[in-house]
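Collaborator request, handled under Task 6.
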Amino acid sequence: MCGTSRAAASHQQLPNLSLKRTNQSLRDWCGRLALALGAAMTAKVANHTIPDDPDNDPDHPVPYLRVIDVAGYRAGGASLSIIVASPLDGSERSQNRLLDKIQGYLGHISSNEFIADSGAAPSPGNTIIEVLLHPDSSETIRGLLDKCHNWVQSNNASLVVRDLTDS
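Structure tokens returned to the collaborator:
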């Protein structure tokens, strides 16, 4: 399972971006995030279709386990975001889906594609996985994420967890 201490994360602060609880607002928020990242990062812009996968559950707060929600690449590193736009409960299923999603991101950062896009091998100093949680998500989920910092760091990234905000 996850480790118990936090890894220090050094990263550029993004502007406080608001999120309403609708799919359109999520698309708008992601667009603003991409614009904010654009000042510091360069990347090809891609609009991917969701792959068919038996683990897809569009009604769950972590709907697509094998999709990178938002990726911003800069010379020598990257920031990858997992967006949880609706409250995530503390059920075993939700915990497993979130851990599976993080594991997918860790697999991605160990790929040749990641190194080609970021221009460098991943390390905790140049690769950030940011989990953006709906503010009404369970304390169980927050506790689980607190235990994941060492796990993520041992896989060459830093973990940052923060709330999405409505204001």
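The cover message to the collaborator said: "The first strand starts at residue 70 and ends at 74. Residues 3-25, 35-43 have pLDDT under 50 and may be disordered. Please let us know whether this matches your experimental observations."
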